[in-house]
Specification:
Strand content: 5-15%
Largest sheet: 7 strands, mixed
Shape: globular
Structural class: alpha/beta
Radius of gyration: 20 Å
Helix content: 25-40%
Oligomer: single chain
Order of helices and strands: HEHEEHEHHHHHHHEHEHE
Length: 298
């Protein structure tokens, strides 16, 4: 099964400062590129646990006694690590967003390049799909999705047009959705706006922001002092959450000050924001919007 090269491979794994006998977690296994590099740096007593909710990723499982692949959403990281007898780890890696494989398989409905049924489920067992969002959400909720997750200022108008179109018949596939939304897609920036629309629906379908919040909070709980968190994000909504959390352990507001007026924060930043160089972007288009943040638990 074809999966593209992992983004920012060496900086992301390097940020974990691998200990040969450590316990690590790759919560976005995908094609296994990051996991293989972690295993390469681990010694015989090291352990790697990987998560991926997409059943397609199971075909890439690595035959290694040090490796365990868990077919679950990373929002359940604490629960499933405990199931395997693990309560604390030395490092956690996350490569957020949609995998190249998911984009490239037309019938999954993630890409604007193909005509496909409205799906966009990362977990193929999930009950909420893009079809349900587009055809069953009321106008207020549709507007919320496009505004909050697509950052589209004309979200109310987009929602209204979808509601009007589906009154005559359901919107079943991506080409029908593009046709319905055509008036919002001027030729000079249609791809960008359509990508924002797809992103909004996809995030809602997969509850991506809620899952990310839960994952980050649990990561803080299970990382050992000195343990590393290495996270790649691909859009400002994700990056904002990661940045705020590693800065002060909160998603909103400021942390409390101690008696001396100092903030009590859970992480220290290891490096400033890391982005791919021009050569990587040229060889791997998916890398163009990647942002890597690495933090160490205090």
């Amino acid at each position: 099964m074809e999966y593209h090269n992992p983004v920012l491979l060496l900086p992301t794994v390097g940020g974990l400062a691998i200990k040969p006998d450590g316990v690590y977690v790759d919560v976005t296994f995908g094609g296994g590129g990051h996991s293989r590099e972690i295993l390469r740096q681990l010694g015989p007593d090291g352990k790697l646990f990987a998560f991926d909710q997409d059943t397609d990723a199971l075909a890439n499982a690595i035959p290694d006694d040090r490796f365990t692949l868990i077919n679950e959403n990373f929002r359940y990281i604490k629960r499933f690590l405990r199931f395997h007898g693990v309560r604390s780890v030395d490092g956690i890696l996350a490569d957020l967003g949609v995998s190249s494989h998911q984009f490239d398989v037309a019938e999954r409905g993630f890409s604007t390049r193909f005509d496909a049924e409205l799906d966009m489920r990362m977990n193929q067992k999930g009950t909420l799909s893009a079809y349900h969002v587009v055809n069953e959400y009321d106008q207020a909720n549709l507007s919320r999705v496009f505004l909050d997750y697509g950052e589209l200022k004309n979200a109310p108008a987009i929602a209204r047009v979808i509601i009007e179109a589906r009154e005559s018949h359901p919107i079943k596939n991506t080409e029908e959705l593009k046709h319905v939304l055509g008036r919002f897609l001027p030729a000079h920036k249609s791809n960008k706006i359509l990508a924002q629309m797809y992103q909004a629906i996809r995030i809602e379908v997969n509850q991506e922001m809620e899952a990310l919040r839960e994952f980050l909070e649990q990561s803080l709980e299970i990382l050992k002092p000195g343990g590393r968190l290495s996270v790649i994000s691909y859009h400002s909504l994700e990056d904002r959450l990661v940045k705020r959390f590693v800065k002060n352990g909160l998603f909103e507001g400021e942390p409390e000050r101690d008696f001396f007026g100092n903030f009590s924060v859970p992480f220290k930043t290891i490096e400033k924001l890391i982005v791919p160089d021009a050569e990587e972007i040229k060889s791997n288009n998916r890398a163009r919007s990647a942002k890597l943040r690495v933090a160490e638990k205090i």
